[in-house]
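Sample intake sheet
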Amino acid sequence: MPQELSTIEPNSQEPNILLILVDDLGYGDLSSYGAKDMETPHLDNLMASGMQFENFYANCPVCSPTRASIMTGRYPDMVGVPGVIRTHPRSNFGYLASHAVMLPEVLRRAGYHTAIIGKWHLGLESPNLPNERCFDHFHGFLGDMMDDYYSHRRHDINYMRLNDEEIDPTGHATDLFTNWSIEYIKDRAKFKQPFFLYLSYNAPHTPIQPPEEWLERVKQREPDMDEKRARLVALIEHLDDGIGKVLNALQEAGLEENTLVIFTSDNGGQLNIGASNGVLHGGKGQMYEGGIKEPMCAVWPRRMRQGSRSSHVALTMDLFPTICQAAGADFSQEIDGRSILSHMLEAPATDEEERFLFWVRREGGLSYAGQAFYAVRYGHWKLFQNTPFEPLKLYNLQDDPQEEHPLDESHKQYRVLLNALQNHIIKTGAVPWQRYPVEL
């Protein structure tokens, strides 16, 4: 029987925590989420080893804001990251607030060694570098995306770092992040101190660049698959293999049973490169379900029942308090997320008040002009737009899960959600998202 949260020994050893975040993985792009044309045995096994979530959401349909919410437990526009942090000021729409209390800071105070391996994407320079935001160890990539998985550059700039040292490693980025994580796990196994490892892959983000042997494997198995889809499938299967190696390293180090593993993606799959979000409408960059609903699972041996599923609605900002509660790490600052640990442990349900949920994305270009657009949800009611220039539309997700039939704006729920969204915008308006002064 699974242990209830209240029955966990207060003096039991704190768990290691492995948070695996992948980049642009579609809701329908794992075998365990319905994909028929790919093989993801390691992630499928992970899903079956604990609790698989059916209604888990990213805090944004693009990268940086979701990552800010994971690291702070707040809505991204409450910590200065309503859009993507980029190299050039004219296309940059976020700056991580100095007042934001970061997850590694809270865990460090609770006695954890903290590490990020892979993609950071919350700051390209001081004071918003990983080690300055309380990670003890950083081995990875500062930027948004790599222009090439092998040369690891963005705009011809090398953003690869080992802590504060610029490095220039060779190899496919997925393999590098996998190998560095294995090295870290082996090293930390020598110590009694628990660790928090944030493993942040940049796959399967563009460019869709799988190793050739993985692409050939897919083509031999699925000879009728078009080239675009085959390349993405190969990149995801290669990613799955890397995650399997990391999980195997935990087992070989004797750390598996006392490690909480959480897996999810930062936003939905990008449709024009062959991604699948299953039956969901839309994809990356959009407020439709396909842009924000994500695969997610949590595994904690001897604490969580294998093969369990949850329909509980949760967001990536909920991971902050969940991880802190599992680690016994206290914090006093205000957050927006709620712990979902009791759901993971299948503890007795508590009366939890329904909450309004908000999503934001600020972006440039002809479609957005530097303005923000939003979604708000309460229960099964959802009001949203996909550009700042289109009207907000109301949907009943219970009756219309594919968001095909907007309701009239005279519907009483339209005003309820609109008022809540307005209050959220007023509250977040006090938080700057630019570093001043900005030189365009």
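Comment: Residues 119 and 141 are 5 Å apart (CA to CA). The chain has two domains: 12-344, 356-428.
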